[in-house]
Design brief:
Layout lengths: L1 H9 L6 E7 L2 E8 L4 H51 L13 H64 L6 H25 L2 H6 L1 H15 L4 E7 L8 H21 L4 E9 L2 E8 L12 H12 L3 E7 L2 E9 L2
Parallel strand pairs: 3-4
Antiparallel strand pairs: 1-2, 4-5, 5-7, 6-7
Helix pairs in contact: 2-3, 3-4, 3-8, 6-7, 7-8
């Protein structure tokens, strides 16, 4: 037995005793006493085992107590951390659970108050952004109307006058120049009106309006490798706000490509899939940027998508800057 062997190592050697048997002065025999400590070992083992069991029970009790106490403290802290993560992700959730620890309950109350304030601020910002977009659209319509009513008419008058001057032989060259210039100005004005006003959607429909927008953009860009896929069946039943949003998102994406990149290849896809319109804009003109763009144009696109409860995702995929948008058809 290992326990007995261990005791033997630390115990003194047991002495064997001899007791002679005497009779009438003569030794007639002897009694030899050989000690056997097995019973002592058993008693010591029982005491050791009982002590070990008590020590183990005490160890388990202490660890369980520590685990319980730390769990009671750490669990509320984890809930507070989760609350901050929700705030970071724009999820405004109040925690009504009582932690039972006054200091942590104070933090919980303060976090809930902060959540309420941030939610109100976010709603206010969202409301202001909606108003801003509405005002921008109204201003664009007014500008397009002014361009049409004032500049367009003036250019038409110049063209008529120039045509009249052309009857004079001496003024032929100048008249031709005036006519050519006014034609260019009128063409540019029409394009500007198209960009500012969304009446083109009513005139052509959203599909043809998008194709016209992309064609006009492709003429102004150096990129020649442009792949376009526009497929919006039953687009006539779309609400005007949805059509306007699709058009403005495409317009802003093209503007961002012109301003912030020099792509050699562009992929544009606007398709309907069930009750969702999927928009995808990709270009490989990253200009050595490794981080996703977060400029005013992108923020404006995100706000338009948010107004329709859509989804917006931007990423870098195989050397292409990619924007993916999903707009529900309601």
């Amino acid at each position: 037995m290992w326990f007995q062997n261990a005791l033997d190592i630390y115990s003194k050697d047991l002495e064997i005793l001899d007791f002679p048997l005497m009779q009438y002065g003569d030794q007639i025999g002897a009694v030899k006493v050989i000690p056997n400590p097995i019973y002592e070992y058993d008693e010591i083992w029982q005491q050791f085992k009982n002590g070990l069991i008590i020590a183990m029970l005490f160890f388990v009790f202490v660890n369980f107590s520590i685990f319980f106490l730390f769990g009671k403290i750490i669990s509320p802290i984890n809930l507070l951390i989760e609350g901050f993560k929700n705030l970071e992700q724009g999820k405004y959730k109040n925690n009504k659970e009582n932690f039972g620890i006054s200091e942590l309950d104070i933090l919980r109350v303060k976090l809930n108050q902060l959540t309420v304030k941030l939610k109100k601020n976010d709603e206010r910002i969202h409301e202001l952004n909606q108003k801003l977009i509405s005002i921008q659209e109204q201003e664009k319509k007014e500008i397009s109307r002014d361009l049409h009513d004032e500049i367009g008419q003036s250019l038409a008058a110049i063209q008529v006058q120039a045509a009249a001057i052309k009857t004079s032989r001496k003024a032929n060259a100048q008249a031709d120049l005036i006519i050519s210039t006014t034609k260019d100005l009128m063409h540019q004005t029409r394009n500007l009106i198209k960009r500012l006003s969304l009446s083109i959607i009513d005139d052509l429909g959203i599909e043809d309006a998008l194709i016209d927008l992309i064609k006009n953009w492709s003429r102004r860009t150096l990129c020649k490798n442009i792949n376009v896929n526009v497929d919006l069946p039953d687009s006539k039943i779309f609400k005007s706000q949805l059509n306007e949003t699709v058009y403005r998102l495409t317009q802003e994406a093209l503007t961002n490509m012109s301003k912030h990149s020099r792509p050699k290849e562009v992929l544009i896809s606007v398709q309907r899939n069930g009750n969702v319109i999927h928009l995808c804009f990709m270009n490989n003109g990253l200009l050595k940027r490794t981080k996703k763009t977060s400029g005013i144009g992108i923020l404006g696109m995100q706000e338009r998508v948010k107004n329709l409860s859509g989804s917006f995702k931007q990423s870098i995929y195989k050397g292409f800057y990619k924007i993916e948008i999903g707009l529900p058809i309601k």
